Amino acid sequence: MALLLSVGTRYRRLNVPGEEDFIGAGIHFCATCDGPFYKGEQMVVIGGGNSALEEGLFLTRFAEKVTLLVRGDSLRASQILQEKAANHPKMEIRFNTTVHEFRGKRRLSGVVVKDGKSNATEEIHPGAVFVFIGLDPNTGFLSNLVELDDWGFVRTFDNMQTSVEGIFAAGDARAGSTKQVASAVGEGAAAALMIRQYLEKLGGRRGYRGD
């Protein structure tokens, strides 16, 4: 018998008041999916990595202005993306800035942000907020089954087998994956072939074929 783990990931949340209330109603996690709905409006992107800058630059196609809120005092994105963002006329980068609350009624209408240096707070009013602060794997239930890395992703060998013989992993929850749909599909297909080889070898050891 063999088992393939393909449990995926979920977008990391800020875990601040009001966040869950406005997901899909002003708070989003996909610029391609939802950015066009806010054409001509000001938008906020939260995060300082490659995804945040890539999505922020994409949103400049539709937004009047894109404000990037970065918790620390520097960006973690590639130098090329940093230069593009810094030089884009529609992008503003605010460092040492965190979100403390989302406000609104049926839809998001305000975001309370705090300056990390002065501790001053203010409320800004973007048309939409896009959160790109990472992904969390859905592997909590696997902690006592297979080996996970420090971030909770499943560790695998070259043949996509985990630390437990007969258990394989593929897709976004696998350590080292690219977190792309096309790659996840390819990994699933590759893992299926690895499982087939494993079962054939297992069947050979037991004296029968595993067809």
UniProtKB/TrEMBL annotation:
Question: Which is a GO BP term held by this UniProt record?
Answer: cellular response to toxic substance
InterPro entries in the record? FAD/NAD-bd_sf (IPR036188), FAD/NAD-binding_dom (IPR023753), Ferredoxin-NADP_redctase_2 (IPR050097), Pyr_nucl-diS_OxRdtase_2_AS (IPR008255)
Q: Which SUPFAM superfamilies does the record cross-reference, listed alphabetically? A: FAD/NAD(P)-binding domain
Query: So which domain of life are we looking at?
Result: Eukaryota
Record Pfam families: Pyr_redox_2
The residues covered by the FAD/NAD(P)-binding domain are 2-188
Keywords annotated in UniProt:
Disulfide bond, FAD, Flavoprotein, Oxidoreductase, Redox-active center
- MF term (GO), any: oxidoreductase activity, acting on a sulfur group of donors, NAD(P) as acceptor
Q: Does the keyword Nucleotidyltransferase apply?
A: no
Family per similarity comment: Belongs to the class-II pyridine nucleotide-disulfide oxidoreductase family.
Q: What is this protein called?
A: Thioredoxin reductase
Q: Which organism is it from?
A: Geodia barretti
